[in-house]
Please model this.
Amino acid sequence: MRRIGLSLLIAGLGAVVAAYLLFVAGWSRDLAPWLIALGSAGALAGLACLGAARGGRRRTPRLAAAIALAFLAVAGGVLGALALPPPAAGDPLLLGLPRATALLLTFTGAIPLLLLPVAYAFAFDDEVLSASDLDGIRTEAATLRGTNGDA
Amino acid sequence: MPELLAFFQVAEIPVVRQPLIVAVGLAYFAAVALIALWAARRTRTAEDFFVAGRSIGLVPFALAAMASTLSGFAFIGGPGLVYAIGMTAVFIILPASVTNTMGALVLGKRMRLLGELRGLVTVPDAIGARYRSTAAQGLSAAAILVGIIGYVATNVLALGIVVDALFGVGLGAGIWIGTAITLAYSASGGILAGIYTDVFQGLLMAVASAIVFVFALDSGGGLAAITRTIQAADPALLGPWGAGGAMMALSFFFVFAVGSLGQPQIAHKYYMLKEVRRLRWYPVLMTVSMLLAQLLFVGVGIAIKALVLRGEVPALARPDDATPQFLLAQVPVVVSALVFAGVAAAIMSTVNSFLSIGAAALTHDIPRALGRPVADRLRAGRLWTIVLSIAAAALAHASGLLVAFLGIFGYGLFASTLVPALAIGLNWEGATREGAIASISVGLVGTLALETLVWLKWIGIPQGATVSGLMLVLSLLAFFVVSRLTASRAAAQLDPDVRLVMDA
Model:
């Protein structure tokens, strides 16, 4: 998980750097939004994976699935909106907003907003920090303090 | 673009003196004073003053985090920006869909555990512990301090404007009255008083925002009618990217999503939670409270745009007039009063948080980095809180709206200096002390230099890119490149208990 996270973060960051370079230098201002959209979603997914990763052989399957789904939704929302034609007067509405905007907000806003906090809460005991994990950490830290002789 | 001045604060709001608004304003300040007095009596140690005695329950924790995240910008500058550039501005708050859970995942558990095992009280403490480096700790404290001075001065100016608008005392007196009230509870009760006033202030902000959102939709005849009006005049405004275009919108998304992991007012609060396992429901609570408190941001911005386009409200002189104009024309006076109190609440909770963090940097981190730890940290913390507030108020008073320049780069400065060293460093054992110091230095010097050059118009950046975004990627690059070059030192810089926390 940590390796995947780091790879995603670095790849995402690379895409964002390329986007800024292309945009600021004026080389390809049309490509830059695509790169920053992909890069942002990748970097965020990478950071979330790094945060969810745990040492040893402990796996975090539910959190990993939620992170993958949420950031696929984020990427899908922004890339989909980039692919659509520019907005025009009289465009059809969805949920009271122009359809492209409503889809973007649903995928980039609503889906991760509902999915991530709930997945975190329900995976907490098994994949974030159980009571026994916490006891183990406190005991091991106390042992380390005793070994090092410091407070 | 001039609208970006509104980005952080209120620039100017019309006088709103009406008996009911003044009465609610006075009642608000009295309630804050009472809560602060109660909390101040519980502040007995430096740990109470800086980390609320690690005794905060989940609900107050989430509400306080929300209140200190949102400044006056959420109520005044934000709706003004939505009015001016439409959906582009929404990308500033859209990252909240992921940032609250990411904060808990990336920072929450590890900072709370590290705080407990090491007795840490500040964000730079965590950096110092992670890399076994007082230099990295001192440098990050200096960066935080630079950001805080501008941020607090800008917020104090905004508070002065609100006090003046409510009570008509003049801007100068407004600045000093607002500062005196915030200082009274910040210096006496530190962050403990701040947390409990934040709870009240956060509730007030969420309730006021939700009520105004209903009025906003109603005044425009519903969301579809508002959209149709705006679409007919300017289809791009409510298109997916707004008037600023895709690059600006996505640049905002990147900076405010990744940058959220470097905001010290949130990171610092993780130490205060009573028990680390209470983090479980934090993302849910924080997301709900942020969602409620930001409804006004979008609702008022689009409603007032539609009303202006239909000729039902005169065109605004400045985008920042959106909220005051809407409140004075479209909602009952009692709701307006709640919102103006909410604006003061948003500003005061932010100022208190930053004063506490700044005082901690001066009392704890910088003396430690210089090898001269302070003996009586509680007394020194109170003293530095007073000095910082007076300095910020004097700066705001002397420079007026020019001080908004200092506030503009606060968010970006925290992001570029703290995201690599803190957020990634606590989750990647390959990070090194040298990488951390390089990224903090690049973030600090680069942000100050580039923002100043852009402000002076000596260089230009194409509309769509932001200095904050550029500096965030540059500091991340410096962090990874230097850590890679010094990779052989990484293992030796990691204490066993820190590794234990990183593996937790």
Notes: Residues 28 and 341 of chain B are 6 Å apart (CA to CA).
